[in-house]
Design a protein that fits this description.
Structural class: mainly alpha
Order of helices and strands: HHHEEEEHHHH
Shape: rod-shaped
CATH class of the largest domain: Mainly Alpha
Oligomer: single chain
Number of strands: 4
Number of helices: 7
CATH architecture of the largest domain: Up-down Bundle
Largest sheet: 2 strands, antiparallel
Number of domains: 2
Length: 267
């Protein structure tokens, strides 16, 4: 046994450092809830989790875009339901104006209502959603995935000739009323087609929304598998490391005390 170099104490100190480091790692993981608290913990896992997290963020953004597009279409259809009511009433007025028992003044009253309804439809054609025109007929490219893919959201044009012809008719005469019947029927038929287009847009966007939701959930699950700490396992590791630190500390104290016994040989 020598005094200058206490090998036992050095070994005990080395074990204490190792156990202390393991204890610190367990504390960091349990307190943060993350399995990777430092790039050195799992370099490959960190790289993969970063890519998965970025893809998840892009997917969430795409899902927001799709949901906004669904709201856009729902707003369109809400307006068109009222336009349908207005056109139906205009068609009814055009038939009533053909009644041979009605006077010119009666037809003037029908025309007053007919014109007011036509003005309402014209005003609807100017409406917008967050500054984007609802009824200019433009096809919008809606981001449908996190890689920049798009869905063509077909537009509706309320200023189309079919609509403007019907809203511009005059039912103050029988001949004008007869024309108005034909024109409003054509407008209602066009409106039915346009609402079907909106319905198809909503349906397809709903599929995209469900797809993105499922993808995002799976991406988050994959990221969690890599980065989230298993509390039960890590708690066990913490308890183990804590005991080892206490044991190493006690053994280091014992190793440091051993050279003192040599002093008795000198006394």
């Amino acid at each position: 046994m020598v005094i200058n170099t206490n090998i036992s104490a050095l070994n005990a100190a080395s074990q204490l450092d190792t156990n202390s480091a393991q204890l610190s790692n367990s504390l960091a993981r349990l307190s943060s809830g993350s399995q990777i608290t430092s790039p050195s913990d799992d370099p490959a896992g960190l790289a993969v989790s970063m890519k998965l997290s970025a893809q998840s963020a892009r997917t969430s953004a795409a899902q927001d875009n799709v949901n906004n597009a669904i709201s856009f279409n729902q707003t369109q259809d809400g307006y068109l339901q009222q336009v349908n009511t207005a056109l139906s009433r205009m068609s009814e007025l055009s038939v009533q104006a053909q009644d041979v028992t009605k006077t010119t003044s009666d037809r003037a009253l029908y025309q007053q209502e007919y014109k007011a309804l036509g003005t309402y439809i014209s005003n609807v054609a100017t409406q917008s959603f967050n500054g984007v025109s609802l009824f200019n007929g433009a096809t919008l490219s809606v981001t449908s995935d996190g890689q920049g893919g798009t869905f063509s959201n077909v537009g509706v044009k309320l200023t189309a000739t079919t609509y403007t012809t019907a809203t511009g008719d005059n039912v103050t005469s029988v001949s004008g009323a007869v024309k108005a019947v034909t024109d409003t029927e054509a407008a209602i038929q066009q409106l039915a087609s346009d609402r079907a287009t909106i319905g198809a847009n909503e349906e397809t966007l709903g599929y995209y929304n469900n797809q993105l939701s499922a993808l995002n959930n799976n991406l988050k699950a994959a990221t969690s598998q890599i980065t989230d700490v298993d509390v039960a396992t890590e708690s066990t590791n913490y308890a183990k490391s804590n005991i080892l630190v206490q044991s190493s500390t006690a053994m280091l104290a014992q190793a440091n005390a051993m050279p003192q016994s040599l002093l008795r040989l000198l006394s």
